[in-house]
Structures are given as structure tokens and as C-alpha cells.
Amino acid sequence: MTPGESRSQSGINASAVLEKLRLLLPITQQMEPLAQLLCEQAALALSARLAAGACPADPRLTFAAAVLAGSWLIKSRQAREAEQLSFRAGDVSISPANPAGLQNGYQTMLEDALAQAAPLLQDDQFAFWQIGG
Hints:
This protein is mostly helical. It contains 4 helices and 2 strands, in the order αααββα. The chain has a two-stranded antiparallel sheet. A hairpin with a 2-residue loop joins strand 1 and strand 2 (about 90-95). The longest helix has 27 residues, at about 60-85. The termini are far apart. The relative contact order is 0.15.
């Protein structure tokens, strides 16, 4: 196993997550280290939530981790671009257009991917219910 491969006995393979992320988004050579880091973090985040008996190699899990890493990557790109391209000259402010459509579309994909993987993850949500009258 290479240093870039993040695979544990009971966790999601970060290399498989990165492979799927490359299919979802164009990743430049410059963005590769960040994409790899985000894939490792997404794999760890979902691995920590695996339900008992769930197979970490299930494609629903690696896809959900790839989409999660992709959403982080998009947010990182947008923040970097806004920082580099925004400037102010007197009363005039110039900033790049915010591609909210891309982020919103990707957010929908993330919700769908996590819904598909939900049977393989522990339920960590809670709800408040009123008891009585």
C-alpha cells in the first residue's frame, strides 16, 4: 500500500473515492493534492458512520464520499477564485460571478448520494417531538 492510499480494515478506500471524484469533476494537476486530501477526509467521515455489517467497498459509499469531497472541492475553488479575482477601486467593487447553480446542483447530488448510502450508515440525526398536550 502506498502512502497516498488510505485504506483501513474497516474503512472506505480513499483511492477509490478519488477515482470516482475524477469522473465527476475535472481535477487539474494543481488541484490534485487538495482533491486527494478531501477524498481521504470524506472517506474517514463516512467510515466513522458505517453501520454494523456494512461493506466499506459498497459503491454507494464510495460514490457518496466522492460527491462529499467534490462539494468541498467546489467550495474551496470558489473561495480561492473569489479571493484572487476580487478587488476594489474607490467605490467600484469587482468580483467574479458566483456560480451558485453549480454548487446548488452539486448539493442536490450530495443529498441524493447520501440518501442512497443511508442504509449503510448509522443514523446520527435526532428530532424533537412534543409529548402530551
